Amino acid sequence: MLVALDLAAPVRPPFAGPVGPPLAELDWEASLRELALLAETAGAMVVGTLVQRRRQPDATFFLGRGKVQEVRQLAAGQGADLVIADSDLSPGQQRNLERELALPVIDRTGLILDIFAQHARSNEGKIQVELAQLSYNLPRLTGRGVALSRLGGGIGTRGPGETKLEVDRRRIRRRITVLNRQVAQISRTRSQQRRARTLSQVPTAGLVGYTNAGKSTLLNALSGAQVLVEDKLFATLDPTTRRVALPDGLAVLVSDTVGFIRRLPHSLVHAFRATLEEVLAADLLLHVIDASHPEAREQHEAAQQVLGELGALDKPTITIFNKLDLVGAREEVAQWAARHRPSVLISAATGEGLGELRAVLTRLAASQLVLVEVMIPFGREELRALAHERGRVLAEEFTEQGCRLRVELPVEVANRLQQLLVPAGTAA
Protein backbone atom coordinates (compact mmCIF):
# COMPACT_ATOMS: atom_id res chain seq x y z
CA MET A 1 0.00 0.00 0.00
CA LEU A 2 1.34 3.41 -0.94
CA VAL A 3 -0.13 6.60 0.45
CA ALA A 4 0.38 9.84 -1.49
CA LEU A 5 -0.32 13.23 0.06
CA ASP A 6 -0.48 16.54 -1.82
CA LEU A 7 -0.44 19.98 -0.23
CA ALA A 8 -2.22 21.86 -2.99
CA ALA A 9 -5.03 22.85 -0.63
CA PRO A 10 -4.29 26.04 1.35
CA VAL A 11 -3.38 25.57 4.99
CA ARG A 12 -5.97 26.92 7.40
CA PRO A 13 -4.93 29.67 9.87
CA PRO A 14 -3.67 28.66 13.32
CA PHE A 15 -6.23 27.85 15.99
CA ALA A 16 -5.85 30.17 18.97
CA GLY A 17 -5.56 28.27 22.23
CA PRO A 18 -3.25 27.49 25.12
CA VAL A 19 -2.62 23.83 24.29
CA GLY A 20 -0.63 22.43 21.39
CA PRO A 21 1.27 23.97 18.47
CA PRO A 22 -0.49 26.13 15.86
CA LEU A 23 -2.66 24.30 13.36
CA ALA A 24 -0.53 25.52 10.45
CA GLU A 25 2.40 23.50 11.78
CA LEU A 26 0.29 20.37 12.17
CA ASP A 27 -2.05 20.50 9.22
CA TRP A 28 -0.42 18.32 6.59
CA GLU A 29 1.37 16.03 9.05
CA ALA A 30 -1.84 15.47 11.02
CA SER A 31 -3.77 14.89 7.81
CA LEU A 32 -1.21 12.33 6.65
CA ARG A 33 -1.32 10.48 9.98
CA GLU A 34 -5.09 10.42 9.80
CA LEU A 35 -4.97 9.09 6.24
CA ALA A 36 -2.69 6.29 7.42
CA LEU A 37 -5.20 5.42 10.17
CA LEU A 38 -8.00 5.42 7.63
CA ALA A 39 -6.00 3.09 5.39
CA GLU A 40 -5.28 0.74 8.28
CA THR A 41 -8.96 0.80 9.29
CA ALA A 42 -9.81 -0.25 5.72
CA GLY A 43 -7.43 -3.20 6.07
CA ALA A 44 -4.35 -1.83 4.28
CA MET A 45 -0.73 -1.72 5.36
CA VAL A 46 1.05 1.54 4.56
CA VAL A 47 4.47 0.92 3.01
CA GLY A 48 5.42 4.42 1.90
CA THR A 49 4.38 8.04 1.71
CA LEU A 50 5.10 10.91 -0.61
CA VAL A 51 4.46 14.64 -0.18
CA GLN A 52 4.48 17.41 -2.76
CA ARG A 53 4.00 21.14 -2.24
CA ARG A 54 2.22 22.91 -5.08
CA ARG A 55 0.31 26.14 -5.45
CA GLN A 56 -2.42 24.28 -7.29
CA PRO A 57 -3.01 20.70 -8.46
CA ASP A 58 -1.95 19.62 -11.92
CA ALA A 59 -5.06 19.46 -14.08
CA THR A 60 -4.06 16.15 -15.64
CA PHE A 61 -2.38 14.14 -12.89
CA PHE A 62 -3.07 16.19 -9.73
CA LEU A 63 0.66 15.72 -8.91
CA GLY A 64 3.39 17.14 -11.08
CA ARG A 65 4.52 14.85 -13.91
CA GLY A 66 7.94 14.33 -12.34
CA LYS A 67 6.36 13.49 -9.01
CA VAL A 68 4.12 10.93 -10.70
CA GLN A 69 7.25 9.08 -11.82
CA GLU A 70 8.57 9.20 -8.25
CA VAL A 71 5.34 7.62 -7.07
CA ARG A 72 5.69 4.92 -9.71
CA GLN A 73 9.26 4.12 -8.66
CA LEU A 74 8.39 4.15 -4.97
CA ALA A 75 5.40 1.88 -5.52
CA ALA A 76 7.47 -0.58 -7.54
CA GLY A 77 10.26 -0.58 -4.96
CA GLN A 78 7.90 -1.19 -2.05
CA GLY A 79 5.64 -3.66 -3.83
CA ALA A 80 2.58 -1.44 -3.40
CA ASP A 81 -0.66 -2.54 -5.03
CA LEU A 82 -2.73 0.59 -4.39
CA VAL A 83 -2.17 4.36 -4.29
CA ILE A 84 -4.25 6.64 -2.07
CA ALA A 85 -4.38 10.42 -2.45
CA ASP A 86 -5.18 12.54 0.62
CA SER A 87 -7.32 14.89 -1.44
CA ASP A 88 -10.26 14.48 -3.75
CA LEU A 89 -9.32 13.61 -7.34
CA SER A 90 -11.40 14.46 -10.35
CA PRO A 91 -12.51 11.43 -12.38
CA GLY A 92 -10.03 12.42 -15.11
CA GLN A 93 -7.12 12.78 -12.69
CA GLN A 94 -7.89 9.42 -11.17
CA ARG A 95 -8.00 7.69 -14.58
CA ASN A 96 -4.80 9.39 -15.74
CA LEU A 97 -2.93 8.40 -12.59
CA GLU A 98 -4.10 4.80 -12.88
CA ARG A 99 -2.91 4.69 -16.48
CA GLU A 100 0.51 6.17 -15.65
CA LEU A 101 1.08 4.12 -12.51
CA ALA A 102 -0.51 0.89 -13.73
CA LEU A 103 -2.09 0.62 -10.28
CA PRO A 104 -5.51 1.29 -8.78
CA VAL A 105 -5.80 4.83 -7.38
CA ILE A 106 -8.40 6.07 -4.91
CA ASP A 107 -8.79 9.39 -3.13
CA ARG A 108 -9.71 10.28 0.43
CA THR A 109 -13.45 10.17 -0.25
CA GLY A 110 -13.19 6.76 -1.90
CA LEU A 111 -11.28 5.43 1.10
CA ILE A 112 -13.85 6.73 3.59
CA LEU A 113 -16.67 5.26 1.51
CA ASP A 114 -14.90 1.89 1.58
CA ILE A 115 -14.68 2.01 5.39
CA PHE A 116 -18.36 2.89 5.59
CA ALA A 117 -19.16 -0.07 3.33
CA GLN A 118 -17.26 -2.39 5.67
CA HIS A 119 -18.99 -1.08 8.80
CA ALA A 120 -22.57 -0.84 7.53
CA ARG A 121 -24.60 -3.39 9.48
CA SER A 122 -28.25 -2.41 9.40
CA ASN A 123 -30.36 -2.23 6.27
CA GLU A 124 -30.63 1.53 6.73
CA GLY A 125 -26.87 1.91 6.95
CA LYS A 126 -26.33 -0.19 3.83
CA ILE A 127 -28.86 1.85 1.86
CA GLN A 128 -27.20 5.13 2.82
CA VAL A 129 -23.70 3.84 2.07
CA GLU A 130 -24.75 2.44 -1.30
CA LEU A 131 -26.33 5.76 -2.26
CA ALA A 132 -23.10 7.59 -1.39
CA GLN A 133 -20.99 5.06 -3.30
CA LEU A 134 -23.09 5.16 -6.45
CA SER A 135 -23.21 8.96 -6.44
CA TYR A 136 -19.43 9.04 -6.08
CA ASN A 137 -18.72 6.39 -8.72
CA LEU A 138 -21.19 7.44 -11.40
CA PRO A 139 -18.92 10.10 -12.99
CA ARG A 140 -15.94 7.73 -12.71
CA LEU A 141 -17.26 5.02 -15.02
CA THR A 142 -16.08 6.48 -18.33
CA GLY A 143 -12.80 5.10 -19.56
CA ARG A 144 -12.25 2.64 -16.75
CA GLY A 145 -12.65 -0.39 -18.97
CA VAL A 146 -15.37 -2.01 -16.89
CA ALA A 147 -18.40 -0.62 -15.18
CA LEU A 148 -18.74 -0.35 -11.43
CA SER A 149 -18.22 -3.70 -9.74
CA ARG A 150 -20.09 -4.20 -6.49
CA LEU A 151 -18.76 -7.66 -5.70
CA GLY A 152 -15.05 -7.12 -6.26
CA GLY A 153 -12.34 -7.53 -3.66
CA GLY A 154 -9.99 -4.97 -2.19
CA ILE A 155 -10.21 -1.40 -0.98
CA GLY A 156 -12.37 0.84 -3.13
CA THR A 157 -14.44 -1.99 -4.60
CA ARG A 158 -16.61 -3.01 -1.68
CA GLY A 159 -20.31 -2.37 -1.70
CA PRO A 160 -23.13 -3.34 0.63
CA GLY A 161 -25.67 -4.09 -2.08
CA GLU A 162 -26.22 -7.17 -4.19
CA THR A 163 -26.50 -5.62 -7.65
CA LYS A 164 -24.87 -7.29 -10.67
CA LEU A 165 -21.45 -6.57 -12.09
CA GLU A 166 -20.85 -4.00 -14.83
CA VAL A 167 -23.66 -1.61 -13.92
CA ASP A 168 -24.11 1.02 -16.62
CA ARG A 169 -25.02 4.65 -16.07
CA ARG A 170 -28.69 4.22 -16.74
CA ARG A 171 -29.06 1.43 -14.25
CA ILE A 172 -27.01 3.35 -11.67
CA ARG A 173 -29.21 6.41 -12.07
CA ARG A 174 -32.32 4.27 -11.65
CA ARG A 175 -30.77 2.68 -8.57
CA ILE A 176 -29.90 6.12 -7.15
CA THR A 177 -33.53 7.19 -7.64
CA VAL A 178 -34.72 4.11 -5.75
CA LEU A 179 -32.20 4.66 -2.96
CA ASN A 180 -33.17 8.32 -2.63
CA ARG A 181 -36.78 7.22 -2.12
CA GLN A 182 -35.68 4.70 0.49
CA VAL A 183 -33.61 7.32 2.31
CA ALA A 184 -36.65 9.63 2.26
CA GLN A 185 -38.69 6.81 3.81
CA ILE A 186 -36.01 6.31 6.46
CA SER A 187 -36.22 10.02 7.18
CA ARG A 188 -40.02 9.85 7.54
CA THR A 189 -39.76 6.83 9.85
CA ARG A 190 -37.18 8.53 12.03
CA SER A 191 -39.33 11.65 12.09
CA GLN A 192 -42.28 9.62 13.39
CA GLN A 193 -40.05 8.05 16.03
CA ARG A 194 -38.85 11.50 17.10
CA ARG A 195 -42.45 12.75 17.32
CA ALA A 196 -43.26 9.81 19.61
CA ARG A 197 -40.29 10.73 21.80
CA THR A 198 -41.42 14.37 21.80
CA LEU A 199 -44.91 13.38 22.97
CA SER A 200 -43.33 11.48 25.83
CA GLN A 201 -41.76 14.78 26.93
CA VAL A 202 -38.49 13.01 27.72
CA PRO A 203 -35.65 15.39 26.76
CA THR A 204 -33.25 14.21 24.07
CA ALA A 205 -29.50 14.62 23.71
CA GLY A 206 -27.36 13.86 20.66
CA LEU A 207 -23.78 12.59 20.99
CA VAL A 208 -21.61 14.29 18.40
CA GLY A 209 -17.91 14.66 17.83
CA TYR A 210 -14.92 13.47 15.90
CA THR A 211 -14.74 9.81 14.97
CA ASN A 212 -13.23 7.59 17.68
CA ALA A 213 -13.69 10.25 20.38
CA GLY A 214 -15.42 7.70 22.66
CA LYS A 215 -19.10 8.48 22.03
CA SER A 216 -20.25 4.85 22.04
CA THR A 217 -18.22 4.09 25.17
CA LEU A 218 -19.88 7.05 26.87
CA LEU A 219 -23.36 5.89 25.82
CA ASN A 220 -22.63 2.46 27.26
CA ALA A 221 -21.34 3.96 30.50
CA LEU A 222 -24.40 6.18 30.93
CA SER A 223 -27.10 3.71 29.91
CA GLY A 224 -25.65 0.27 30.47
CA ALA A 225 -26.24 -0.43 26.78
CA GLN A 226 -24.06 -2.75 24.75
CA VAL A 227 -23.36 -0.53 21.75
CA LEU A 228 -20.45 -1.75 19.62
CA VAL A 229 -17.20 -0.19 20.80
CA GLU A 230 -14.03 -0.51 18.72
CA ASP A 231 -10.80 1.47 18.66
CA LYS A 232 -11.37 2.20 14.99
CA LEU A 233 -12.47 5.13 12.88
CA PHE A 234 -16.18 5.08 12.03
CA ALA A 235 -17.01 2.05 14.20
CA THR A 236 -20.54 3.49 14.59
CA LEU A 237 -22.67 4.20 11.51
CA ASP A 238 -26.20 3.45 12.68
CA PRO A 239 -27.72 5.84 15.22
CA THR A 240 -28.54 4.21 18.55
CA THR A 241 -30.88 5.78 21.10
CA ARG A 242 -30.87 4.66 24.73
CA ARG A 243 -32.77 5.82 27.79
CA VAL A 244 -30.43 7.11 30.50
CA ALA A 245 -31.87 6.94 34.02
CA LEU A 246 -31.08 9.96 36.19
CA PRO A 247 -31.58 10.74 39.90
CA ASP A 248 -35.08 11.50 41.22
CA GLY A 249 -36.74 9.27 38.64
CA LEU A 250 -35.83 11.51 35.72
CA ALA A 251 -34.51 10.32 32.37
CA VAL A 252 -33.03 11.57 29.11
CA LEU A 253 -32.87 9.88 25.71
CA VAL A 254 -29.31 9.91 24.33
CA SER A 255 -28.62 9.16 20.65
CA ASP A 256 -25.22 8.06 19.34
CA THR A 257 -24.47 9.30 15.81
CA VAL A 258 -21.87 8.77 13.11
CA GLY A 259 -18.53 10.39 13.90
CA PHE A 260 -17.24 13.40 12.00
CA ILE A 261 -13.90 13.79 10.25
CA ARG A 262 -11.96 16.52 8.49
CA ARG A 263 -13.30 17.10 5.00
CA LEU A 264 -16.27 14.80 5.50
CA PRO A 265 -17.40 13.98 1.94
CA HIS A 266 -20.51 15.91 0.92
CA SER A 267 -21.90 12.73 -0.64
CA LEU A 268 -21.90 11.17 2.83
CA VAL A 269 -23.56 14.20 4.39
CA HIS A 270 -26.31 13.94 1.76
CA ALA A 271 -26.72 10.16 1.96
CA PHE A 272 -26.73 10.15 5.77
CA ARG A 273 -29.05 13.10 6.13
CA ALA A 274 -31.74 10.83 7.64
CA THR A 275 -29.25 9.83 10.34
CA LEU A 276 -27.81 13.29 10.90
CA GLU A 277 -31.32 14.69 11.40
CA GLU A 278 -31.08 13.17 14.89
CA VAL A 279 -28.57 15.93 15.63
CA LEU A 280 -30.94 18.68 14.48
CA ALA A 281 -33.89 17.24 16.42
CA ALA A 282 -32.09 16.86 19.76
CA ASP A 283 -32.83 19.26 22.62
CA LEU A 284 -29.15 19.23 23.56
CA LEU A 285 -25.86 18.23 21.97
CA LEU A 286 -23.13 16.40 23.86
CA HIS A 287 -19.96 17.27 21.94
CA VAL A 288 -17.38 14.64 22.86
CA ILE A 289 -13.68 15.47 22.42
CA ASP A 290 -10.80 13.02 22.77
CA ALA A 291 -8.77 15.24 25.11
CA SER A 292 -5.79 12.86 24.90
CA HIS A 293 -5.39 13.17 21.13
CA PRO A 294 -2.45 15.33 19.97
CA GLU A 295 -4.73 17.00 17.40
CA ALA A 296 -7.71 17.39 19.75
CA ARG A 297 -8.14 21.06 18.94
CA GLU A 298 -8.10 20.52 15.20
CA GLN A 299 -10.58 17.65 15.57
CA HIS A 300 -12.85 19.91 17.63
CA GLU A 301 -12.63 22.58 14.94
CA ALA A 302 -13.43 20.05 12.21
CA ALA A 303 -16.46 18.75 14.12
CA GLN A 304 -17.68 22.31 14.65
CA GLN A 305 -17.39 22.91 10.91
CA VAL A 306 -19.60 19.88 10.17
CA LEU A 307 -22.13 21.01 12.79
CA GLY A 308 -22.15 24.39 11.07
CA GLU A 309 -22.88 22.76 7.71
CA LEU A 310 -25.78 20.91 9.36
CA GLY A 311 -27.12 24.14 10.88
CA ALA A 312 -26.69 22.84 14.43
CA LEU A 313 -24.21 25.33 15.90
CA ASP A 314 -26.95 27.21 17.74
CA LYS A 315 -28.04 24.09 19.65
CA PRO A 316 -27.46 24.11 23.43
CA THR A 317 -24.24 22.14 23.82
CA ILE A 318 -22.27 20.52 26.62
CA THR A 319 -18.63 20.05 25.64
CA ILE A 320 -17.33 16.78 27.08
CA PHE A 321 -13.57 16.31 27.32
CA ASN A 322 -13.20 12.53 27.29
CA LYS A 323 -10.34 10.05 27.86
CA LEU A 324 -9.10 11.98 30.87
CA ASP A 325 -7.35 8.82 32.06
CA LEU A 326 -4.98 9.15 29.09
CA VAL A 327 -4.28 12.87 29.54
CA GLY A 328 -0.94 13.89 31.02
CA ALA A 329 -1.34 17.67 31.38
CA ARG A 330 -4.80 17.84 32.98
CA GLU A 331 -4.38 21.46 33.99
CA GLU A 332 -4.03 22.52 30.36
CA VAL A 333 -7.14 20.56 29.40
CA ALA A 334 -9.03 22.19 32.29
CA GLN A 335 -7.98 25.61 31.01
CA TRP A 336 -9.24 24.70 27.55
CA ALA A 337 -12.51 23.37 29.00
CA ALA A 338 -13.00 26.63 30.89
CA ARG A 339 -13.22 28.40 27.52
CA HIS A 340 -16.08 26.13 26.39
CA ARG A 341 -18.56 26.18 29.26
CA PRO A 342 -20.75 24.37 29.97
CA SER A 343 -18.16 21.61 29.89
CA VAL A 344 -17.34 18.42 31.79
CA LEU A 345 -14.07 16.49 32.07
CA ILE A 346 -14.62 12.73 32.11
CA SER A 347 -13.24 9.32 31.35
CA ALA A 348 -15.99 7.15 29.91
CA ALA A 349 -13.69 4.13 30.29
CA THR A 350 -13.07 4.54 34.03
CA GLY A 351 -16.23 6.42 35.02
CA GLU A 352 -14.40 9.52 36.25
CA GLY A 353 -16.55 12.65 35.95
CA LEU A 354 -19.74 10.78 34.99
CA GLY A 355 -21.43 11.91 38.21
CA GLU A 356 -20.96 15.54 37.21
CA LEU A 357 -22.26 14.82 33.71
CA ARG A 358 -25.34 13.10 35.15
CA ALA A 359 -25.94 16.15 37.34
CA VAL A 360 -25.89 18.40 34.27
CA LEU A 361 -28.29 16.08 32.44
CA THR A 362 -30.53 15.99 35.52
CA ARG A 363 -30.84 19.77 35.44
CA LEU A 364 -31.78 19.50 31.75
CA ALA A 365 -34.45 16.89 32.44
CA ALA A 366 -35.84 18.86 35.40
CA SER A 367 -36.17 21.96 33.23
CA GLN A 368 -38.67 20.06 31.07
CA LEU A 369 -41.06 19.48 34.02
CA VAL A 370 -43.90 21.55 35.47
CA LEU A 371 -44.93 21.53 39.13
CA VAL A 372 -48.58 20.59 39.80
CA GLU A 373 -50.78 19.36 42.63
CA VAL A 374 -53.38 16.74 41.76
CA MET A 375 -56.01 14.80 43.67
CA ILE A 376 -56.27 11.30 42.25
CA PRO A 377 -59.51 9.61 43.32
CA PHE A 378 -59.58 6.07 44.63
CA GLY A 379 -60.06 3.59 41.84
CA ARG A 380 -57.73 5.49 39.48
CA GLU A 381 -54.50 3.85 40.57
CA GLU A 382 -53.23 3.85 36.98
CA LEU A 383 -53.01 7.66 37.15
CA ARG A 384 -51.06 7.53 40.41
CA ALA A 385 -48.71 4.98 38.85
CA LEU A 386 -48.33 7.24 35.80
CA ALA A 387 -47.34 10.17 38.01
CA HIS A 388 -44.75 8.07 39.81
CA GLU A 389 -43.40 6.60 36.57
CA ARG A 390 -43.20 9.78 34.50
CA GLY A 391 -42.68 12.44 37.12
CA ARG A 392 -40.84 13.38 40.29
CA VAL A 393 -43.13 13.06 43.31
CA LEU A 394 -42.30 15.66 45.96
CA ALA A 395 -45.14 14.93 48.38
CA GLU A 396 -47.88 12.32 48.64
CA GLU A 397 -50.81 12.25 51.07
CA PHE A 398 -53.82 9.93 51.26
CA THR A 399 -57.08 11.71 52.15
CA GLU A 400 -60.76 10.81 52.22
CA GLN A 401 -61.08 12.00 48.61
CA GLY A 402 -58.10 10.09 47.28
CA CYS A 403 -54.36 10.50 46.90
CA ARG A 404 -53.04 14.06 46.81
CA LEU A 405 -49.75 14.46 44.97
CA ARG A 406 -47.36 17.36 44.63
CA VAL A 407 -45.39 16.30 41.61
CA GLU A 408 -43.21 17.59 38.78
CA LEU A 409 -44.49 16.17 35.49
CA PRO A 410 -43.82 16.49 31.77
CA VAL A 411 -46.28 18.96 30.22
CA GLU A 412 -48.04 16.24 28.22
CA VAL A 413 -48.70 14.15 31.35
CA ALA A 414 -49.76 17.21 33.37
CA ASN A 415 -52.29 18.02 30.65
CA ARG A 416 -53.76 14.51 30.93
CA LEU A 417 -54.32 15.14 34.65
CA GLN A 418 -55.75 18.64 34.07
CA GLN A 419 -59.17 17.76 35.47
CA LEU A 420 -57.59 16.51 38.68
CA LEU A 421 -55.57 19.65 39.44
CA VAL A 422 -56.00 21.04 42.96
CA PRO A 423 -56.83 24.79 42.94
CA ALA A 424 -54.07 26.99 44.37
CA GLY A 425 -54.45 27.64 48.08
CA THR A 426 -56.70 24.61 48.70
CA ALA A 427 -55.90 23.02 52.06
CA ALA A 428 -55.06 19.34 52.24
Helix content: 40-55%
- CATH H level, superfamily name of the largest domain: P-loop containing nucleotide triphosphate hydrolases
What series of H and E elements makes up the topology? EHEHEHEHHHEHEEHHEHEHEHEHEEH
Q: What structural class do helix, strand and pairing data support? A: alpha/beta
Secondary structure tally: strands? 13
Strand order of the largest sheet: 6-7-5-8-9-10
| Domain tally | 3
Distance between the termini: 78 Å
Shape summary: elongated
CATH topology title of the largest domain? Rossmann fold
Low-confidence stretches: 6-26, 145-152, 160-165
User: What average pLDDT do the residues reach?
Assistant: 78
Assembly context of the chains: single chain
Work out the radius of gyration.
Answer: 26 Å
Largest sheet: 6 strands, mixed
Strand content: 15-25%
The CATH architecture of the largest domain comes to 3-Layer(aba) Sandwich
* CATH top level assignment of the largest domain: Alpha Beta
**Number of DSSP helices?**
14
Give structural attributes.
single chain, Rossmann fold, elongated, alpha/beta, 6-stranded mixed β-sheet, 4-stranded parallel β-sheet, 428 residues
Summarize the structure.
42% of the residues lie in helices and 18% in strands.
Could you please describe the fold and organization of this structure?
The chain is α/β, with parallel strands linked by helices and 428 residues long. It folds into three domains: 102 residues, 3-Layer(aba) Sandwich (Rossmann fold); 176 residues, Rossmann fold; 52 residues, no CATH class. 42% of the residues lie in helices and 18% in strands. It contains 14 helices and 13 strands. The strands form three sheets. Strands 6-7-5-8-9-10 form a six-stranded mixed β-sheet, with helices on both faces. Strands 2-1-3-4 form a four-stranded parallel β-sheet, sandwiched between helices. Helix 1 links the parallel strand 1 and strand 2. Helix 1 packs across helix 4, helix 4 runs antiparallel to helix 5 and helix 5 runs antiparallel to helix 6. The chain is elongated and about 95 Å long.
